[in-house]
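Notebook entry, structure prediction.
Reason for the run: the old model in the group folder had no record of what sequence produced it. Starting over properly, with the input documented here first.
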Amino acid sequence: MEHLSNWKNKESYEERQEKRKDRILIVSLSVLTLAVLTILFSLIHSQVTTQQATTATTATTSAATDTSADSSAAESSDNAAIPDQTSGLLVSFLDVGQGDSIFLRSPSGKTMLIDGGPEGSFSVIDAYLSSLGVVGLDVVVASHLHADHIGGLVSLVDTYAIGDFYYPNFDATSEVYFELLDALNESQAVVHRPYAETDTMIPWDDSVEVQILAPYETIYDDFNDTSYIIRVKYGNTAVLLMGDATQTSEKLALKAQPNQNFKADIIKISHHGSSDGTLEEFLDVVSPAIAVISCGANNDYGHPHQSVLDMLLERGITIYRTDLNGTITMLLDGTSVTVIE
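New structure, fully documented this time:
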């Protein structure tokens, strides 16, 4: 009886097939559920990653904005240090390395650049002029035709509108000089090449006197002596710009001009502080309170020479150097001189 009972309880073929279908369905549903969960996880992970990237980008942008704001503030602060043009005569001795470049702005806003430093200096000059909003120059002067004074002027003439251009009537044979001549020929600048006489002026601003005190129509053994010596006077204040004139040129100028024409509060020391460029007698006639030396850091010439520094210190003259102080800016208000930090 027991054997019969077990036989009766055995599943039929149809029942086994039905259960097999059920198992297949369960497995299929499980796989489908797992696939759906996998897709949902991927979507959630992607959304979280995107949000994190967005947050990081926002933070970076915010930091960049803050940096930009800080830079703008710094630039505004730097520009704020330059006084309004009506305050007086602005004179800036630009740091162009082993060379000269001097920017002047008159109380009425007239602009002048004396020398352009060595080749490669234009970027420094351009950045400075742009910071002041200068788009053209009323007068440009090359003190003489050595490359460390005219190297940056080629690009300047090519880039800026220039009213009048002055340089001494002594020709050079350098490639940079020929490039400057080409640039001037293609520009609208009016070129002047005066010698110094008893009353040779550069017309610029009615309230400022710009006088050429050297060189003269003669033969110089040293080409440095063909440099313009220029005195810029505003009210009872003045700056004397020496180019690279040597003691020979200084002696000749003292004979040709009255001493009063050399008096100045500021002297730009000749020839980057070379010992051949400053005569003690000449320095005593000028009687400056401030001396500026334009030279490159660790230059090959040892400028400025110690004998020149000693000469200045013995007379209690305050010394500023572009190799140590960078660009040096001063304001002459007609009665006193202020050094702008």
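Summary: The chain has two domains: 1-80, 83-340.
The old model has been moved to the deprecated folder.
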